[in-house]
Amino acid sequence: MHRPRRLPLLLLVLIGLLPAVARAQLPPPRFPSPHARPRAGVGGGVGGGYEFETRYFRQRLDHFSFSGEEEFFQQRYLVGRAGGWAGPGGPIFFYCGNEGDIAWFAANSGLVWEAAPRFAALVVFAEHRYYGESMPFGSKEKAYNSSRSMAYLTAEQALADYTVLLTDLKRNLSSESSPVVLFGGSYGGMLAAWMRLKYPHIAVGALASSAPILQFEDIVPDTIFYDLVSNDFKRESLSCFQTIKDSWKELDEQGNGQDGLLKLSKTFHLCQTLNTTGALSDWLSSAYSYLAMVDYPMPSEFLMPLPANPIKEVCRNIDKQPERSSILERIYAGVNIYYNYTGTVDCFDLDDDPHGMGGWDWQACTEMVMPMSSSEGLSMFPPDEFDYALYADDCVKNFGVRPRPRWISTEFGGHNISSVLEKFGSNIIFFNGLLDPWSGGGVLKNISDSVVAIVAPLGAHHIDLRPATKQDPDWLVSLRESELEIISGWLSDHYRARGGALFQRATNDDSAAS
Amino acid sequence: MHRPRRLPLLLLVLIGLLPAVARAQLPPPRFPSPHARPRAGVGGGVGGGYEFETRYFRQRLDHFSFSGEEEFFQQRYLVGRAGGWAGPGGPIFFYCGNEGDIAWFAANSGLVWEAAPRFAALVVFAEHRYYGESMPFGSKEKAYNSSRSMAYLTAEQALADYTVLLTDLKRNLSSESSPVVLFGGSYGGMLAAWMRLKYPHIAVGALASSAPILQFEDIVPDTIFYDLVSNDFKRESLSCFQTIKDSWKELDEQGNGQDGLLKLSKTFHLCQTLNTTGALSDWLSSAYSYLAMVDYPMPSEFLMPLPANPIKEVCRNIDKQPERSSILERIYAGVNIYYNYTGTVDCFDLDDDPHGMGGWDWQACTEMVMPMSSSEGLSMFPPDEFDYALYADDCVKNFGVRPRPRWISTEFGGHNISSVLEKFGSNIIFFNGLLDPWSGGGVLKNISDSVVAIVAPLGAHHIDLRPATKQDPDWLVSLRESELEIISGWLSDHYRARGGALFQRATNDDSAAS
């Protein structure tokens, strides 16, 4: 096991605090998140071609106490143009915002927009507190000022936000009887599933896409994430996998040699000379993890502009280098696909973290403690073990908070989830793509008739939610159709119980992506 | 409608803040709660003859935020002598403490103790935060100091307390797989039902006795409570009902006459001369409401020492007075049964509120807003309408907090509860006795196969939970048996799913009360 070393605060914040292993060799696995400001302006806009209005709701900062000193903040939410909505009593499709700007998630969750007309549903995307424009205390600077100001950045508070917002929205629309279907991907998918469980009176069902609700404590093996990333590379090319696996030692050795850091900086076209090889390792590992998440069979610009099947391309580049190429030259050729597919980058700045989210670092240091290790055998990453004590100490040092590593499973469950939910709860779809390393913490088996798992062996991170494209493979078209059939059943049940079909349902043909 | 008048703060606190009508003619309906300190000492004791150990758990004050300034308090809980427990993996019967000293609820919830041996279950009674000995900040004085210190007195925090306590307790007992059955009566019953819904992974089922989870907003008519109290008197004697109904005008007229307050004070044997007739009206109304709650068919000392069928006795006393008796003399004779059944009281002190609970006043001013009106037609109480604006203003004035009248139904549901729970949730018994005025806010119909209502037409407030007595009518013995059969089914399901019967089950005969 590598001895964890302590990084300076800045770097620690930049690379996130997730697993203690990050301070050894491994970067923190994070969920994908927006790397750019939203394309939509205030008051309305078009995200990914979807038309919506931007609204703000006066939201309570702390739902669970009554200090008498009430704090509120403006929570942003996007509402699709109401033209296609059935009107009062008609369905509402509600996306549970993740750890980032909501416009980005709206642009990347085409399924919600594209399915809405078929059900004459109103589309709502709600932004998560402390992200995007939904900042308590008036600004990000003030919201992120201290542990006192960040105290209310929790999943429970966010779920209560969505619940209060929906309740108010329905009342204002005179639409209290509307069935609400929750959507969410990644952390947003966890929120959608948890919200269906905690607030069944608010929503008739939830599509929880790529939601690793079991990635806590010892519910799943802590090596599963990196094993799955590694497997994505191994399935494309054993030599590619092996080159990456061999590269860490090579990196260390070169870094420790004469002018090693300078040489490494040149090999990898870095803008500035490295201070440690660790920063480079993290940069590489991070690319591999993200590549596994977005290993889609069509070109995408979700995180970075990428070709279809990006891991195949990365491995092809690693493998196809001239025979005399060194391991590190191959590695450089590989990650170029991720960091520079457009070929416009002259040099790379490792400090430039386009996916930086201080908010998620906080969440990882409070509730979202997901232990991550790298196994000696199956992983192409350097072996490392999760060291909780070190992890917790760093949270205290950097944020002034101590994590509660058992809180999530206490609050939301997780252990024996099948037996708990077999007789409790209903109407949840857990989607997972098996290429996605987060699928290791997902629900992969049907739990009951209505708490079901849809698994795509060739799918990556919430591919089902992505906008439809001409290149979508048949299995993807078909699984989206399965999801919508299930949702249709929830809505039919709802209206049947109320004695009538209040919503107009178009034919399936109308639901095709435009 | 009577114009609400403002009472001085002291009186307001004494009579509680529940309905605005309290400030007109009606006292606040409250749940029964302990009027005396527990009989059990620290470290162990016998409450109602049940043997337990007193323990304390270091509980987190705020489960839902992470300010970095962690506050903890000592939460008291009682654990039955473990001799009868099946051991690790065996059932745990967990009582969700109400708004009062837990030893009192333990002494008055005999069913839990008496049923435990039959299932070889471990008995745990957990005290609710801010009550009894479970005081944040080290003392009641400090805990009740201000809205800042009381901020965390909420149902959600209490549910999280129970969840965290149970999770820790099971771990310490190496008994993580133990099935937990929740019990609770009155507010404790609401907590038991909500806990089953919010934390299904913690408990396999809940017996929610006399839990008015629908007594919020407009879910049930706001006149139902006083109508039910009135009906309890009407069914015993129409003339008794009419005498009480006529008495309010009589009270007002006498109070307004020459030396009226002095005369009233003499008629009612008050220790001190009245300042207003309102205080006397409240004292009378309060007695009627409590009488309806504890209208048990056997003698009890739950709130006051009372005979069997106390309303029958009250009405008999009212009706049997000599014909020349005035209305108020009859009324005095009636309430004497409630306030002075033992005949030891020389004079009555209206300020002496044996059921005072500042904590519940706070809860009523934050989450627990239960609108209460008195109807012109069916009620024997003076007509009055719930005035929310006034209610809220008084909460601000007295506690520095503004209520959130819609929060409970937003957080826990309530509207259309049948359709929500028909397809969601399982394993809850809602017991209600129809003599109990709180049954108006209860679940009185089966919702699904496993979310069921047990209704006792002749039962009062959580009579099922009371210790068994020789005088118990057959219907009571039989409905307790039905409840235990259902609970037995939950436990069997649990063990069957785990492939074995780990707990010893005695024969039914063993379960008879000793």
UniProtKB/TrEMBL annotation, chains A, B:
Residues 1-24 form the signal peptide. InterPro entries: AB_hydrolase_fold, Peptidase_S28, Ser_carbopepase_S28_SKS. SUPFAM superfamilies: alpha/beta-Hydrolases (SSF53474). Keywords: Glycoprotein, Hydrolase, Protease, Signal. Belongs to the peptidase S28 family. PANTHER family: LYSOSOMAL PRO-X CARBOXYPEPTIDASE, PROTEASE S28 PRO-X CARBOXYPEPTIDASE-RELATED. This is Lysosomal Pro-X carboxypeptidase. The lineage of its organism: Eukaryota, Viridiplantae, Streptophyta, Embryophyta, Tracheophyta.
